[in-house]
Design a protein that fits this description.
This protein is α+β, with helices and mostly antiparallel strands. The protein has one domain (34-376). The chain is 24% helix and 26% strand. It contains seven helices and 21 strands. A ten-stranded mixed sheet has the order 3-21-20-10-11-9-15-14-4-5, sandwiched between helices. It has a five-stranded mixed sheet with strand order 7-19-18-17-16. It has a two-stranded antiparallel ribbon with strand order 1-2. A hairpin with a 5-residue loop joins strand 20 (350-356) and strand 21 (362-368). Helix 2 (133-141) packs across helix 5 (264-285). The radius of gyration is 22 Å and the shape is globular. Bound molecules: adenosine-3'-5'-diphosphate and magnesium ion. The site of magnesium ion has 4 residues, from strand 17. Residues 45-380 form the RAI1-like domain.
């Protein structure tokens, strides 16, 4: 927001923000009732990849694709797979330290290093929303979620709205008390990735190695939901060197594990609950296929199935207790509009905390300079320098 009270939303469009001293009569909130969001599917720009970064086995950042892995499933004409997902759990597992809250830091580092090269013109970022794909996934599934609430911290800085998840007290308590069986199940999801991916194109997976969940390859994408320009990043499991399009994100593959199913009732429940989460995660990033490995009670994957992201909804289209992509996307758009109109003041140390619990509307609280502040000083100072330093005059050699 500048001194005249106008907030630059994009190069072309300038919106007048509400005066800062005009407070609403009652605290604003946003309903999450699915029936309110069942209109037609909103505009969602095909996500395009702006860049990527990698995190190594010590969670160190690299501005390249070194952690990208290559989809390498067993041959379809060979024996059926027999992947032991428990192998290595006790002796070859380096789990990431979940106590370390990274917030948006890695994405902000990428943004700082590429802010001068963003497509869409110099004003584009000022009108955009910057966040993780995982946070948007939670928004998409909110109208159908009955168990886990969330909190999203929001700050406006140089026009841009940044959204960063805050772990709820309940989620933290659950994480700290995670039962051993659930810990092992988490490992098994990562172990499946190791069975299905090679480090080099044309290479073979090496399941004898360690599973280190610090390692990550993240794609950074641009999209738009309704009139909300988006810049977000998401972790990508692998790329398919054989995919018909070699262009990201359409060459990417999402890997998942799930329990083997034996009855129509089990499949129905899978379509209603798990497929919704898989769809939301992959649709946002433009990943065309999710490859599921089905594990038996002993923890072995003996079969796969590919679920094309764009066909997932078909499994619940005629199910009264199913989910609807329009509801997910319309709710997300409504939340972004709500956040954009609530967070007016441009101040990187001011946080509007959006909180949601199942069965309730989304509510907001305001926090200045407190523990919720998430935009790091190194980011704020470097971005502020851009505005204060005079434009570079080309030297005769340029
Ligand atoms: P599965 O989903 O196959 O079980 P992702 O699929 O998003 O790439 O995540 C890889 C694995 O991380 C998951 O594999 C799961 O084991 C673990 N994981 C991801 N998100 C999780 C969550 N919210 N709770 C527990 N485990 C999670
Ligand atoms: Mg996965």
């Amino acid at each position: 927001m500048d001194s005249t009270g106008t907030r630059k939303r994009s190069a072309e469009k300038i919106e007048v923000a509400e005066p800062q001293n005009k407070l609403p009569c009652s605290a604003p909130s946003l309903s999450t009732e699915p029936a309110l969001y069942s209109g037609s599917f909103p505009f969602y720009r095909r996500p395009s990849e702006l860049g990527c970064f990698s995190l190594d086995d010590k969670r160190q950042y690299y501005g390249d694709a070194r952690a990208l892995r290559y989809y390498s499933p067993p041959p379809t004409n060979g024996p059926s797979p027999n992947f032991d997902l428990r192998d290595g759990y006790t002796d070859r597992y380096q789990p990431r330290d979940e106590e370390i809250q990274e917030r948006l830091d890695h994405l902000l580092r990428w943004l700082l290093e590429h802010r001068g090269q963003l497509e869409g013109g110099p004003g584009w970022l000022a009108g955009a929303i910057v966040t993780w794909r995982g946070h948007l996934t939670k928004l998409l599934t909110t109208p159908y979620e009955r168990q886990e609430g969330w909190q999203l911290a929001a700050s406006r800085f140089q026009g841009t709205l940044y959204l960063s998840e805050v772990e709820t007290a309940a989620a933290r308590a659950q994480r700290l008390a995670r039962p051993p069986l659930l810990r092992e199940l988490m490992y098994m999801g990562y172990k499946f990735e190791q069975y299905m991916c090679a480090d080099k194109p044309g290479g073979s997976p090496d399941p004898s190695g360690e599973v280190n969940t610090n390692v990550a390859f993240c794609s950074v994408l641009r999209s738009r939901l309704g009139n909300h320009p988006l810049l977000f990043s998401g972790e990508v499991d692998c790329t398919d060197p054989q995919a018909s399009s070699t262009q990201p994100p359409t060459c990417y593959v999402e890997l998942k594990t799930s329990k083997e199913m034996h009855s129509p009732g089990q499949w129905r429940s899978f379509y209603r609950h798990k497929l919704l989460k898989w769809w939301a995660q992959s649709f946002l990033l433009g990943v065309p296929n999710v490859v599921a490995g089905f594990r038996n009670p002993e923890g072995f994957v003996c079969s796969f199935k590919t679920f094309p992201t764009m066909e997932m909804f078909e499994h619940v289209r005629n199910d009264r207790d199913g989910w609807n992509p329009s509801v997910c996307m319309n709710f997300c758009a409504a939340f972004l509009t709500f956040a954009q109109s609530t967070v007016i003041q441009d101040d990187p140390r001011l946080v509007h905390l959006f909180s949601w619990e199942p069965g309730h509307p989304v509510t907001v609280s305001v926090h200045q300079d407190g523990p919720y502040t998430f935009l790091p000083t190194w980011y704020v100072e470097a971005m502020a320098q851009d505005l204060s330093s005079p434009p570079k005059t080309p030297s005769p050699k340029d």
